[in-house]
Structure formats: structure tokens, C-alpha cells
Amino acid sequence: MSESIAEEEVRMEKLKELREKGIEPFAYKYSRTHSTGEIIAAYSNLETDQVEEVSLSIAGRIIAKRTHGKAMFGNIKDVTGIIQFYGNINALGKDKFDILVNLDVGDIIGIKGKPFKSRRGELSIMIEEYTLLTKSLHPLPEKYHGLQDKELRYRHRYVDLIANPDVLETFKQRTVIIHQIRKYLADKDFLEIETPVLHSIYGGAAARPFTTYHNELEQDLYLRIALELHLKRLIVGGFEKIFEIGRVFRNEGVSYKHNPEYTLLELYQAYVDYNDIMELTESLISHLVYFVHGKYKIVYQEKEIDFTPPFKRLTLKDALKEYADVDIENDLEVLKKKAVLLGLDPGQDPFKGELINYIYDKAVEPNLIQPVFIIDYPWETSPLAKRKRDNPELVERFELIVNSMEIGNAFSELNDPVDQMERFQDQMKARAAGWEEAHQMDNDFVNALKYGMPPTGGLGLGIDRIVMLLTNSPSIRDVICFPHMKDKQ
Asked: 123, 227, 316, 427: which one has the fewest Cβ atoms less than 10 Å from its Cβ?
């Protein structure tokens, strides 16, 4: 019998004994007056052995306990912090003291008592009354020394949050960051919008979707891979500054920077182009860095990254020359040979834009550590972006790269319905030739454009990757509460 199973059986027996004594081990509610953080803030300046003559109520999980004869010390944790508690047999009486001593690490209790400084100078709560709120039937990992196995941490996030306080702090920080993004955009008069998760035609990005089926409608549906096309329909309808923060779903690889579902910010602003959106992006990202860290230079995984605006601008053409020794204007054969040298299989009949993407991903992006906007992409790979004003072979698009990760993607949005239809038709040809991630035909979106969409700039930002950078988290799984895991065999 494993130690964990044996411990669980002991706790089940304790549960039975509590109920035999008339104690309900799963309470309905508890009224507390303070959090541990509030008590620490208010009473940390007490003198040693000083007892404050005020009764406070707190609640949380026991994370440590130690008994010294007729006295017991322990630590209780809530979402704001950890504080020591102290109980003795004289104040509680033998029966209640014995039950307190018999509680387990992991149990959740409510405590009413007075704050004081122990002889060792530790702020504590002297128990006057306590209530068992929830009996923990499963022992915490390694007697609360911490859950270290990463796969177990991701699969059992609830234990991870209990055992590793830094993880809880990361997710609290994530909430603050997302709130700050909303506040920043609201202060610039952007309106938050919600669009459908289920799409009859998936689009807005080059990605494979998850499929589902609606029984009543007898219709195949897709989980959205982007927010773009519905938001731009709303720009057609008269909105001018809108955004959405939502989950998107892509049926593709898993890595330290990819998860099948992730959180995306997309925003659209009428009467601006990708240059204006570049400035907005730079301002938002640098604002978030300064808000979280109080400075623009941060250390991420032992690398110093400087978010001081303005960020560097580099054309895709120049980036390919510098890091891959190819020209965006090279013919197909030259690009195919370069792809092979980089260990890529270009296939029998690749599209030029697809080859450029492969080479860029392999040879360029890994070298981009400091924030940089890579601008002006081949039109074949960007079916929703306007052609560049002085070069119709390119489009007005940028990607923001930080630490070899794409953080953002943005366009001067294509608003010519005839050009948009032709681009979709080109994508359908690419799909017929075997490119699974090519865009589907979306006739309704083209129809919306025919009513007239004003000049518009759009942006997509990966929230999870931003949180990774701001919390020094090495993997996207560290900033998603419940990352997808392969089922155990």
C-alpha cells in the first residue's frame, strides 16, 4: 500500500470520528473579518510578546503544524498570504485542543483570535475559537515540500497552486495584466465586444481548426481560430474602435509557446493604418512592462530585454538578407535550395510565400531577442492585408517579435471587396494544392465589405506570451491554468 493511500485511509477514519462527535467537517460558510494580508499589513509593527486586544476572524488552509505539549503552532494560508496561529489547552479546553491537534495539513479552518508577536518575533494569531470548514482527505505532496514534477503540476493544477505559492502569484499577476490591457484600451475609447466561438466558416488566420457538429441544425461547425472576421464586420456596421479578448482554438502542434487553445486580444480601429497600429502596440506593450516592473528593462530567462520605446523596425526583406542570406525576391528554386539547407522539406510544388515563411521561422526568428517589428510580408501569405502602397507584391503587415516569439500580428486591413475575393480564390487554389492551413472562402465577409469598410488598422496579440514575458515563465503551460495534456495511456 502506498504512503498516500495509507494516509488517505487515516483521514477517512478521522472524518468518521469527527461526525461521531457531532462535528460537520464540510461547513456551509464562514464569516471572516480580515485576510492574512490585511492582518500582516496592520499588525506587523507589534512588539515581541505584545497582544493586541482585538478579535479578528480569518480562514484558510493549514500548511504546517507542530505541537509542543499543551500548545500548538501552525501556519494558515489564504490567497493573500500566510500567517502563524497559536493555540493552547488552557484557552481552548482539552476536548477542543485535542481536535485542533488532530487536524491535518491541508484542512481548511476558520480562526477567531487576537494578533500578537511571538517570542521569536513572528506575527501570529492567538486562537480564541476555531471552526473546521473543510476536511482534506488527500495529503498534500511531499508533506508540503512542493510539487516538482511538471507534468503532474499541469495535470493537477489545484495541487500545484497549493504546493507552489509562486504559481498562485503568476496567475494573480495574469489577472492584473489582462485587467490593465482592458483599462488601457478603454482609456483610449475602445469598446469591448464579444463575437461567436462557433463558426460555420473558420478564418482570420492560417491554422487548422477543431471541428464539431450541431445536432439540431445538422451542420458542421468549427471552433474559432481567430476573432478577426466578425470584428471587421462590426467596423463595417459603424463601430470605429473595438477589441475582444477571447479564447481561440488551433488544431496544431504543442510546444513551450503553443497550446491548442489560448487567449488572444484583437483590436480594430477605423481610419488608421499599420503604422498607427505599430505605435499603439509599442505603447501598450511598453506600458504593461513598466506597469508590472516599474522599468522598461527586464530579465527574461537570464536575458535582459529592453522594452524602451521606440522598438526597432526591420523589413522582412532585410531580415532574410541578414540572417538567412536570401532575398525575398529570389526565385522559387533558390528559396527551395535554402529551405533544404536548413533541414526543411519544401515538398514538390511549394508556394513562394510558404517557402519564405519556412525560411523565416527557421533562420530569422530564433535570432530576434529584443523587441522588433518585422514589416512588409509577401501578399500570398497575408490574404486579409492591404497591398503595400509602393510594392503590390508585398502587404502592409507587421509582426512583433520578442525573445524569438511572435507576440503580435497586424495589418492595414484589406477593405477592397474585389481584391479580397481574388485573395480568397488564391487561398482556395493553395488549399486544393495541399496547403491545409489556407483560408476558406468567406462569401458573407466579402459581401460585408461591399457595403464599405473604412480604412482600418487591426492587431492580434497573444496574451499568454505577454504574460510569459512579464512573469518570467519559461513555458506557455506555466501561464495557462489548465493547459492541454495528452491522456495517460
From this structure: 123
- pTM check: above 0.90: yes
What local confidence, expressed as pLDDT, does residue 353 receive? 81
DSSP tag of 290: H
3-state secondary structure of 268: strand
Which alpha helices (DSSP H) does 134-213 contain, by range? Answer: 150-155, 157-163, 165-187
Supply 13's cell numbers. Answer: 477514519
Residues 6+ apart with CB under 8 A from 10: none
Radius of gyration of the chain (CA): 29
CA angle 181, 260, 267 (to 5 degrees): 30
Q: Pairing state of beta strands 372-378 and 123-134? A: unpaired
DSSP letter (8 states) at residue 360: I
Q: For 121-174, how does the pLDDT look when each residue is reduced to its tens digit (9 = 90+)?
A: 999 999 999 999 999 999 988 644 445 678 888 999 999 999 889 999 999 999
Q: How far apart are CA 461 and CA 452, in angstroms?
A: 26
**Hey, what's the cell of 276?**
498607427
Confidence of residue 1 (pLDDT cuts 50, 70, 90): very low
Q: What's at 365, amino acid-wise?
A: E
- Name, in order, each residue with C-beta under 8 angstroms of 104's C-beta and a sequence gap of 6 or more: 11, 14, 62, 135, 136, 139
Query: Rounded to an integer, what distance in angstroms lies between the CA atom of residue 264 and that of residue 447?
Result: 26
Residue 215 to residue 220: CA distance in whole angstroms: 9
As a whole number, the mean pLDDT across the chain is: 93
What tens digit of pLDDT does each residue of 266-287 get? 999 999 999 999 999 999 999 9
Of 105, 125, 118, 96, the closest CA to residue 36 belongs to: 125
CB distance 43 to 52 below 8 Å? yes
